[in-house]
Amino acid sequence: MRTAIVILNWNGCHLLEQFLPKVIQFSEDAKVVVADNNSTDNSVKWLQENFPQVQLIVNPTNNGYAGGYNEALRQVDAEFYVLLNSDIEVTENWIKPIEKLFDSDSQIAAIQPKIRAFKQRDRFEYAGAAGGYLDRMGYPFCRGRIFEETEIDTGQYDDIREVFWASGACMFIRSSVFHDCQGFDESFFAHMEEIDLCWRMKNRGYKILVQPESVVFHIGGGTLSKSNWRKTYLNFRNNLELIYKNIEDKYLIRSLLKRMLLDGVAAFKFLFTNGFSHFYAILRAHLHFYRLLPSIRQKRRKLKKVESIRNTSGVYMGSIVADYFLRGKKKFSDLDIS
Description:
The chain is of the alpha/beta class. It is built from 11 helices and 14 strands.
């Protein structure tokens, strides 16, 4: 089988009931796999009773998105993996355009489709939109989404383009590259592990693309909502590790010092708008990062090479924070990106 669609599930039986039938309907030439992350709901029993043709992998523990996929993908044999969130609605002909793009260049490691919002179907979805970018200080954003601002899709990003990262909500990836790069860093648990993997792949000379001919619709927040303080904690902690592991020496200290300042501002903004739990989440994220610095430093030393972020496609050398909050640039098209 060329392509295996692997859906990581954790207590998402209701999502499987809603979205799995269409995945099967529109994926005739692909293998469909559900990897259950030690769910305590009725997911496993429901799958066995209703879709016995779907390969079921039961992980013994819940090690998050990163660990769950690492465990499952060791047991899946295919040329391409599709890492698909359980809360995504796929569409007809969503696989073929991406397979064709892979075939055009052996250096393409990962591709994402265009991701639109399930509930506002003409609008880009937060987690990936039309391809992921990074600014010079390691802040992720997308074509079609900057911070909380999502654009209406009018076809403005319908070109195939090399980007910095592909969304883990729906990521097509060459299995050989995934395993050669040793998969996801499991210390991330969830959030930004796909950006870390894409950064490592780009440092090895691989390309990450978006193929807008393929379209999917994503609910988002199916496992952890934006209002949950733990999501804030993971995003801030993982972004610090992402930068420390991957950015070149020349920019490392400068980037971390600026991030400390900006994260402090963000913490007090959360304190006055979202309450103490999110303020504490950012503080805890920093304390955890500092405590883990020795082990993160070891990971950095093991990387084969670290390319200059300035020479990497999908990187915006401006500050997305300054552009968004100070200059009022709310759309990707407002940025000076060729």
